[in-house]
Write a structure and sequence with these properties.
GO molecular function, one term: ATP binding
InterPro entries: ABC1_dom, ADCK3_dom, Atypical_kinase_ADCK, Kinase-like_dom_sf, Prot_kinase_dom
Largest sheet: 5 strands, antiparallel
Keywords: ATP-binding, Kinase, Nucleotide-binding, Transferase, Ubiquinone
Domain Protein kinase: 124-453
Low-confidence stretches: 1-9, 18-43, 442-453
Number of strands: 13
Distance between the termini: 50 Å
Strand order of the largest sheet: 1-2-3-6-5
Family: Belongs to the protein kinase superfamily. ADCK protein kinase family.
Length: 453
């Protein structure tokens, strides 16, 4: 039976407290301005206090609040440094932790899902969770034969909590735009709500994870745990040791961050060709650097199914963009549905808007940075700029929604890492249409040797 009724009031009250708090800060800010304090100082202080309350509330909740916080944390690199600095640790915490479920309730879930004798298969089960996140938590155990396994257990009432939290967050969109002007909250929440069913069914996740694990089995660069057992609400996989990518972001050397970022891009770009799937949840909590230096990947609850690899139109349009053919870019985007037929758009303005996004493919090597990402975010969210007006006229076709999420989220992670790497070579290898050469493995979804850095 769901535990939601006992906690719904408290959860909703915490989220509902956010706009009340911002109203108080607005009144306080008005008083300070009347008292002679500069407007920009008052705004900065209000933003800082808003962020403090925002992350405190999100960090205390699971469900949709936690899921939203994880999605938001990817774009930490776009924040002005005076806001990002003090809250970077809190944003990172949102990527891979949440308040745990009690041992008694964990045992009840396992009894229901696996039967009363589940300890015969999950030996030395550790009641203390090794990790907890938005809709479930992970425990360590041993599979028969001694293999270490991760037991992922979904919280009872997760579906109701997700929907309740996301509905509430959608109503609070004004709060987030006050904290970070230009942030589009409603489309992000709408996408999370649309994917609830996929992420809640661990059977779908098991199928996707095993396809990845098989395609990358024995790979020199990547480690993906195999699936041992699953139900709709419990998933047992091989255990994966490693250093979380968030720690590489915070403490890694430049060489470590360069290699991690390159492998991160290589995995995302190679997935459709090698496994017929795109890992579509690219926040740092889903990645580890294993003791032998490989990139370990976790959490396959959200994937895009691309059995033929990436759509070749992406590579072709990127190549046309590099060649500077503005008219053909406009026509290509119209054909794919990014520009609706009735929208009047200047080709040269569109080309100018898109140029920074092609930079990583324009050079043999490219370095992402927080400064670069902040400049791009400001460029497309300043309502007075031509770029913002151009962005407003563009449309995102549903078939590209998850690809767009991976592309934009991946850039956020690379900016946090500050990675410098030969990204153009990865485009050439894995993006159909970028060159005339066929992408290895795209036609049959079979594994192909990945180049080493």
């Amino acid at each position: 039976m769901s535990d939601l009724p006992r906690h719904t009031v408290a959860r909703t009250a915490r989220l509902a407290s956010l706009p009340i708090g911002i109203a108080g800060r607005t009144a306080l800010g008005l008083g300070k301005r009347l008292g002679g304090k500069p407007a920009e100082v008052v705004l900065s202080e209000a933003q800082r206090r808003t962020a403090d309350q925002l992350f405190k509330v999100l960090g205390e909740l699971k469900g949709g609040a936690m899921k939203f916080g994880q999605a938001l944390s990817i774009f930490e690199a776009a924040l002005p440094e005076h806001l990002a600095g003090p809250y970077r640790a809190t944003l990172t915490k949102l990527q891979d932790s949440a308040p745990p479920m009690s041992a008694d309730r964990v045992h009840k879930v396992l009894d229901r899902e696996l039967g009363p004798h589940w300890r015969r298969r999950l030996r030395n089960f550790d009641d203390e969770p090794a990790a907890s996140a938005s809709i479930g938590q992970v425990h360590r155990a041993q599979w028969p034969g001694g293999r270490e396994v991760a037991v992922k257990i979904q919280y009872p009432g997760a579906a109701e909590a997700l929907r309740s939290d996301l509905n509430q967050i959608a109503l609070l969109s004004r709060l987030f735009t006050t904290w970070m002007p230009g942030l589009e909250v409603k489309p992000l929440v709408a996408e999370l709500k649309a994917r609830i069913g996929e992420e809640l069914d661990y059977s779908l996740e098991a199928e996707a994870q095993e396809r990845f694990a098989t395609a990358y089995d024995g790979d020199a660069d990547f480690a993906i745990p195999h699936v041992r057992l699953h139900t709709q609400h419990v998933l047992v996989t091989d255990w994966l040791d490693g250093t979380p990518l968030s720690q590489v972001i915070a403490h890694g050397t430049q060489e470590e961050r360069d290699r991690a970022g390159l492998l991160f891009v290589r995995f995302l770009f190679s997935g459709p060709a090698r496994a017929g799937l795109l890992h579509a949840d690219p926040h740092p909590g889903n990645y580890r650097i294993t003791p032998d230096g490989r990139l370990g990947v976790l959490d396959f609850g959200l994937v895009a199914r691309l059995p033929g690899g990436f759509p070749p139109q992406i590579g072709r349009l990127l190549r046309i963009g590099l060649n500077g053919d503005a008219e053909n870019i406009l026509e290509g985007l119209r054909a794919e549905g990014f520009v609706k037929p009735h929208i009047d758009l200047d080709a040269d303005e569109l080309y100018s808007y898109l140029q920074p996004f092609t930079e990583p493919a324009r050079h043999e090597t490219f370095q992402f940075s927080r400064e670069w990402m902040r400049s791009q975010f400001q460029r497309i969210t300043d309502v007075r700029s031509t770029s913002a007006k151009t962005a407003f006229k563009l449309n995102l076709p549903p078939s590209y929604a998850l690809i767009h999420r991976v592309w934009s989220g991946g850039i956020g992670v690379l900016a946090q890492l500050g990675t410098e790497a030969p990204f153009r070579a990865e485009f050439e290898r894995w993006l159909p249409g970028f060159t005339d050469e066929p992408v290895i493995g795209a036609s049959d979804g079979q594994a192909s040797p990945a180049p080493t850095p």
